[in-house]
Amino acid sequence: MLKPSWLRVKAPHQERIGNVADLLVDLNLNTVCQEASCPNIGECFAGGTATFLIMGPECTRKCPYCDIGSIQKGKPLDPTEPKRLGEAVSRLGLKHVVITSVNRDDLQDGGASQFVKCIENIRDRSSNTTIEVLIPDFCGNWEALNNVLNAAPNVLNHNIETVPRLYKRVRPQADYKRSLNLLKRVREGWPKVYTKSGLMVGLGETDSEIKEVLIDLNLHHVDIVTIGQYLSPGKNHLPVDRFVSPDKFETYKKLGEETMSFLQVISSPLTRSSYHAGEVKKLMASFPR
Prior knowledge:
This protein has helices spanning 14-26, 32-35, 41-46, 81-92, 112-125, 142-150, 167-170, 176-189, 207-219, 246-259, 279-286; strands spanning 30-31, 51-54, 96-101, 130-134, 155-157, 194-201, 224-229, 264-267.
C-alpha cells in the first residue's frame, strides 16, 4: 500500500543527529528511536532528545507489529546500565527524559528493579530532569509496578496499543483488561503521578472502537493519550489496513480533549508514544500536582 504524502518524512541529516548517536555508541546505550525504526528520529535526535531503551535490544515477546527483535530468554541485566544512562542524561543536558524497555518476561519482576535503578541514577546526576517511564505490563506483577512507582517517576506511560478485538492478533501475549487495570492502579495509589497511554490506528480497527478505547482510558483516569498511524516495519509484520487522514486524527484529538477529561491528546499520523515528550513538562507546569 503506497504511503500518502503526509507520511513521507525526509531522511535525517547525519550531521544533525551525529552528537546524540555518537554519545549512545560511546556509552553503549540503546534507544527505541533506533531499534523500532521511529520515523521521527531525525527531528528528535537533532533536538538533543532520545527515548532510552533499557534491558534490550531483544524482547521476550513477539508482537507482529513491532520491529524490535525477539528472543525467548534475554541476557542477564547489566548492572552498569543505570549509571551509563544517568551519565547520558547529564551529558545531553536533558530537561525531560523517557525510559522504556523491551518485555523481559524471563525475569521475576519483569525488569522493574532496573527501572528503579535508572530513575535513581538520573536523580543523582540531573536532579531537575523530569522522568517519564514507558513500562511493560510486568505480567500483572503489581508488586513490581509498586516498586517502580515508589521510585517517583513524574509520568507513568503504558500503551494500550490497539482495540480489544485485535489483541489476539496484535498483542498475543498481552491482555487489554490487565493493561487498563495497571493504569487505574497508578492513579489510585500514586495520585501525583501523571498517567499516559497510546494506541496505533490502521491495524483493522473502526472509529467506533477507537472511541470505546478512549472512553475506557478516560474511565481509568489516564491523563495523556497519544494516537498515531501504524506503519508496518516489513513484509514479516502485520500489514497496514488503512491510512488515516490528518483530519481524522484531529477528530480523535477533539473527541478526547473536548468531550472527555484528558489533560492532553496528541494525535497525528507521525505521533509516537514518546514524540514531543518534552511537552509533558509544560503540561505538568499548567496542571501541577
